[in-house]
Amino acid sequence: MLKEFPLGREIDRPSAESAIESFREKLSAQQLLLKEKKLPVILLIEGWGASGKGSLIGRLIRYLDPRFYTVCTRSVPSDEELRKPFLWHYFTKIPQAGKIVLFDSGWMEETVRSVESKELKKRELTERLDGIRIFERQLVENGYLVIKLFLHISREEQKKRLEALEEDKNTDWRVTKNDWQQNKHYDKQLKRFDKYLEATSVPWAPWHILDATNRKEAELAAFRIVTESIDRALERRPGSTPLPKTEQFPLVQMPLLSKVSLDKTVRSDEEYRTQLKSAQKRLRELHNMLYRKKIPLIIVYEGWDAAGKGGNIKRLASALDPRGAEVHPIAAPESFELSRHYLWRFWTRLPKTGHVAIFDRSWYGRVMVERLEGLCSEADWKRAYHEMNEFEHELVRWGAIVIKFWIHIDPDTQLERFQERQNTPEKRWKITDEDWRNREKWPQYEKAVNEMLRKTSTQFAPWYIVESKDKRYARLKALNTVIQAIETRIRDDEK
Amino acid sequence: MLKEFPLGREIDRPSAESAIESFREKLSAQQLLLKEKKLPVILLIEGWGASGKGSLIGRLIRYLDPRFYTVCTRSVPSDEELRKPFLWHYFTKIPQAGKIVLFDSGWMEETVRSVESKELKKRELTERLDGIRIFERQLVENGYLVIKLFLHISREEQKKRLEALEEDKNTDWRVTKNDWQQNKHYDKQLKRFDKYLEATSVPWAPWHILDATNRKEAELAAFRIVTESIDRALERRPGSTPLPKTEQFPLVQMPLLSKVSLDKTVRSDEEYRTQLKSAQKRLRELHNMLYRKKIPLIIVYEGWDAAGKGGNIKRLASALDPRGAEVHPIAAPESFELSRHYLWRFWTRLPKTGHVAIFDRSWYGRVMVERLEGLCSEADWKRAYHEMNEFEHELVRWGAIVIKFWIHIDPDTQLERFQERQNTPEKRWKITDEDWRNREKWPQYEKAVNEMLRKTSTQFAPWYIVESKDKRYARLKALNTVIQAIETRIRDDEK
């Protein structure tokens, strides 16, 4: 895309100035429309070193209300960032509805740089690009506008600018060794950029290449693209047309809940205690190994109310070193969470490599409570199965072990436990009117859960149905499932 | 405190076991009371290397519900952390009401280590300890329970444990060079610990020294202290007794708002444009210098509705490099913010060194809207003046420039602007029913603002009243005030 791109066209300065002025007014008015229509905008600005990304951003925002935008700069990633999935840094920074985030270079720059440094091998690059396409597509499908600009300059122009920056002692610190490297190997770098641009230019998030030889021309083009894109997005109805998916994931077949026999028990308390102790001991050792091998572990707990999720999690968590494990209780989203992509609040809670995150309820709320209570549109929850598979696929590619438990009981057992909670003062806080209301919708929930298990039990992140009529059985089963998953993984890694 | 502490007492194992069991049940029941009474608990566990902090934490939480607690481990600070104030790492991690955060070593360890490495000079240590005392006192006054345990072992015991850890290949990575250093210079380290303990043991957050020679004994003592402290805190009524303050801050005298003349104007639009342009240019240069000198700048904007805050901020922000500046619009707190110390949501938004944070409304909401709308108790807002001074003092000691603007108009000007907003379609979103309601309370607000200006205009973080009947005048004044503050600071630093 870059190779054939003509650079250095002449422009008419005064007419550019006045055009910019009118676009600026337009953008200023669009801010309020964004707010009103709750449209979030991501503006990614990439380009060559010294192509003027920073100063372009400065001009774009000059007349924006600072309450409506944020600028994110790509800086040297911290140790913590390096221990998170690649997209974590970007996903956690997406705007709320009605706001704009400008990325002063981002996932493109980081990717191309990793290719350059040979950190990313060929297969990894393919995966990376795939993840990026999914990231952008998910954003668009969830109502985000994604605008991507690439500032292009020639080798000679870049050299001239780097030299000028170096001559001024106020700006010399901005020129890095990397910039000069880029200039020296300009042609190679151009090929890398091109390959990236081609791989990620899609109709719903196309690349716009800007001739940045002349700053005014680049500014004018940027204003035009941004305002036009916003106009189009304001007209578009979000989620109206599902976008093409890239991949089908291999599924594990799951039984219908009604076919699951709940009569599994542990023979005696003594047997339970002995087995619990030895499983916890084994898990403690394995946590140590995960830590040393820097493998992250993500465990999802879903299940019926009163199925025994809490007690089950407790047995698992207490076997882990608390310095490297965290339980995330997931309640109804707060408004700052609701105003972003629904997976945002889970991305922000991902563990570091070597750590364990246990989700006490999870993103699967989308296809259960949010679906049944009408908290999202039908298109939203229907799309979510694949989105969640993609999300977990990304986590697994990053290196995580992902395990999902459905803690299962039957309606009679639930009724017994509800009544017991009601009658026991220390347990009464655990039972609310909502629990009774949910109980009435058991058949609808069962249908939704069956659909969820069927559609999201992938081979890389399968569901495990944990029979929990006997809670002791359920605890041992969950512990042993986790132990087995870790052992299998460690064995596979050593092959 | 440590020197005279007797170590190595014999205990009766079976009776310790049964006592621990009953404390454990008590703690388990207390969780629900914490939740019910919305009491947040901070449990700081410090001590010698290999004294068993981690395993003690493991035992304390074994029967706690993972939804109620988090464990924070002190790890090597990231670059980002190093560019924040010392207490940032801890303040941002305080629990929500009803929850427990266990710190696996924290601000004590970090401080003593900085003394050891000679990073902290004598005067800096004094300031550091002062900041820590304020931190803990503010937490307690705002309803937190702060429990501090120190695990003490002898030099010989430590040596024995380090050797044992090193012998096992599963644990050898836990022993650091630092641990052996500590053991080698045990006596010196003991003195440093002692000094810290003495300086920070206060009745509302006392230190508890535990003999950790015998793990069971330490566990028993920890359980006893934790459960007893929680019992006492549950009985205590928060904020009922103000705690002794350490310091009075030098104030700048402020005029009453009614004495401020609002007839200041800029002669012509042309003069405004010229001056604006040159001030923005100067500020841009200065931002560069702040960045290079790593000086953080914090600017607070408060003012009457329709006083022109937004436009004023825009002129300031657009002169800054957006990669190093952020505007934080402060709205009513969301529930995850309300359930923490009211300064938490500002601590989490502090800039890095060399960066600028502009607060569009701020912590001063406490003594204005929260006071007048009864959103906090009288004791809360009365205490807040000093707390906010302490907060800003800490920021200044860290190295920040703190500037606070009161954007001022009179009631007639406000009425005119409200009417104009009402009558201009593009501006109508800016005016709400609440604005009209607030307007009716002008006299009460004026009284509150006068009190705020009088009590919180410290010499290190003064208020500036910005006359904004002529918005152009106000913009230039704010810009020039910021410029002057930066220039003064840079000059002082160079002396």
TrEMBL record, chains A, B:
Q: Name one GO biological process term.
A: polyphosphate metabolic process
Which InterPro entries does the entry link to?
Answer: P-loop_NTPase, PolyP_AMP_Tfrase, PPK2-related
Domain named Polyphosphate kinase-2-related: residues: 17-235, 268-489
- Cited Pfam families: PPK2
Can you tell which superkingdom this protein's organism belongs to? Bacteria
An annotated Gene Ontology molecular function = polyphosphate:AMP phosphotransferase activity
- Spell out the NCBIfam families in the cross-references: poly_P_AMP_trns (TIGR03708)
Official protein name in the record? Polyphosphate:AMP phosphotransferase
Q: What is the lineage of its organism?
A: Bacteria, Bacillati, Bacillota, Clostridia, Eubacteriales
